[in-house]
Amino acid sequence: MKIGSLEFKQTPLLLAPMEDVTDPSFRILCKRYGADLMYTEFISADALIRDIEKTKRKLTILPEERPVGIQLYGKDIEPMVEAAKIAEEAQPELIDLNFGCPVKKIATKGAGSGMLKDIPKMVEMTKQVVEAVKLPVTVKTRLGWDENSKVIEEVAERLQDVGIQALTIHGRTRAQMYNGEADWTLIGKVKNNPRIKIPIIGNGDINSPEKAKDYLDKYGVDALMIGRPSIGRPWIFEEVKHYLETGELLPQIKMPEHVDRVVEQLDSAVEWLDERRGILHMRRHLAITFKGLPDFRDLKIAMLRANTLDELKPILAQIKETYKDY
To answer: Is the pTM of this model over 0.90?
Structure first.
């Protein structure tokens, strides 16, 4: 698969852009565990051109995590074009346009998946961004706004015609949010459309190595993008890649190694943000990563209430010892 100057010899695994998740500390770990292409958290075009410091910080790309795409969202064409020019100065490998975020405060204002209600505007915005920057421009979107408007086949052709170099499709409509199962049927139709020449990347519900291979075999996409299943489990990329290459499942890591990897992620988050914000950032991961352990309620509550490393690390050490045979 090729996107601009990027070339992947085997089926690449991509880390999906996720707000409050895919900061550099998390991206570096996903890279270490086999992700081939990372994306930033999605960045508001309006906030970026207003020079808001918190938003500008999201442009940071560290050498050890490359290649990285910067993802932008917005409802108006001119700010998106200006934001793309600013993003280009951060020297990512590509710029990705977010036409898929279903969150109400974004979509109902016409940004993210809200663009699926105005296809001509989506196409014109994409065209102008492509013309404004020298980097490859890609798009991430959904099947459509709702069950009655699954327009992805038309959208794919029109976006390709204005110059995007890859398209990621999440197999749900905006109305579905993240509920129910992702429907990959239309993703497969787009991929197998003889008019489509750009890479098609499938996204949605890839939560195991077996499912990753099954979707690749059934739908023939050029790459797989993994999002929420990587939260609390960044090594899913390693598991999927090993299975795709060998047909064998990696042995499940034991709890001592599991905890060591969580501590590594914690230290990375604290280094990137600071102690307080790093621990807050990690709570989403911590709430998920130990899911399924028996008699875990009290330890989970203590873990999620900890506010300092001095409080949190002994709890993680206790988990490591208590569940050492898991």
So the answer is: yes
